[in-house]
């Protein structure tokens, strides 16, 4: 019996004749920060698409919190407590920060239309939204139009939206892409805070961030996990250095 909150077993995905994910095994423990790294085209985003339900696996199992979720629709997987970062394109640019986040908070409550609960629900939705804004330090920007936020502020909003349903597992796909060093450091700190008490699976190309943030790292090369271990173990692994890291992080 495994303690993992998320388990991938023999996961495979082909596009036409080409097998891109070639038997991936991976375990995410309940409170760990786990990075999935690997060269361009290794299949990292495809793994995320499979786990979040955007793509159907060709074979294999995905077990989340004791339930098989392979092939289930994204909304259902999300409702079970696995949340993938919303891309910036999911932010409504003309709505305010508060309005965007409130929509994300309301989504898991469904569309119950019981008038006698509306007032109390409104208050709790507002409270929850404010708490999330504080958590990602956007409370001062609540009334700003989302489309006018800076890039890293948009990413913070995106992270808050990911947290809205209080997920057990968060998947973040390249959250630092396109950021300056300063923005990267800020966002890394934020991710560290908001992932506390949850499991995080992150795909990120910035190796400094990956090695500083992760409890464990899995290395995906050509659709297979060639190693999983602590940052120190991964850094010292000869196969990983040969296939991916090279001398970059050898020091
Ligand atoms: N829908 C698709 N149809 C056909 N091939 C695809 C499809 N999606 C991805 N691929 C191919 O699968 C391979 C893995 O892509 P994927 O985006 O998962 O890699 P990645 O590790 O996330 O890469 P990067 O680090 O560059 O983001 C690539 O060769 C890509 O061209």
UniProtKB/TrEMBL annotation:
Q: Give the superkingdom in one word.
A: Bacteria
GO molecular function terms noted in the UniProt entry = ATP binding; ATP hydrolysis activity
Q: CDD domains, alphabetically?
A: ABC_Mj1267_LivG_branched
Record's GO cellular component terms = plasma membrane
Record carries keyword Coiled coil: no
Provide the alphabetized UniProt keywords. Answer: ATP-binding, Cell membrane, Membrane, Nucleotide-binding, Transport
Domain (ABC transporter) spans 6-247
Name the UniProt record assigns to this protein: ABC transporter ATP-binding protein
């Amino acid at each position: 019996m495994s303690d993992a909150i998320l388990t991938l077993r023999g996961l495979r995905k082909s596009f036409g004749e080409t097998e891109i994910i070639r038997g991936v095994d991976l375990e995410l423990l309940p409170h760990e920060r786990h990075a999935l790294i690997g060269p361009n085209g290794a299949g990292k985003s495809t793994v995320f698409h499979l786990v979040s339900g955007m793509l159907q696996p060709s074979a294999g199992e995905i077990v989340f919190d004791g339930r098989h979720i392979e092939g289930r629709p994204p909304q259902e997987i999300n409702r079970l407590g696995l949340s993938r970062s919303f891309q910036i394109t999911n932010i409504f640019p003309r709505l305010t920060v508060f309005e965007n986040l409130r929509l994300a908070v309301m989504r898991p409550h469904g569309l119950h239309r019981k008038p006698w609960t509306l007032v109390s629900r409104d208050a709790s939705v507002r409270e929850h939204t404010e708490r999330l804004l504080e958590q990602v330090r956007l409370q001062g920007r609540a009334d700003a139009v989302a489309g006018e936020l800076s890039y890293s502020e948009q990413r913070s909003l995106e992270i808050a939206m990911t947290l809205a349903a209080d997920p057990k597992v968060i998947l973040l796909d390249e959250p630092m892409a396109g950021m300056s060093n300063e923005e990267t450091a800020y966002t890394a700190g934020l991710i560290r805070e908001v992932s506390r008490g949850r499991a995080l699976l992150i795909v990120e190309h910035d190796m400094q961030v990956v090695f500083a943030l992760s409890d464990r790292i899995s290395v995906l090369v050509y659709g297979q996990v060639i190693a999983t271990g602590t940052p120190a173990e991964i850094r010292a692994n000869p196969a990983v250095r040969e296939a991916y890291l090279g001398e970059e992080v050898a020091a």
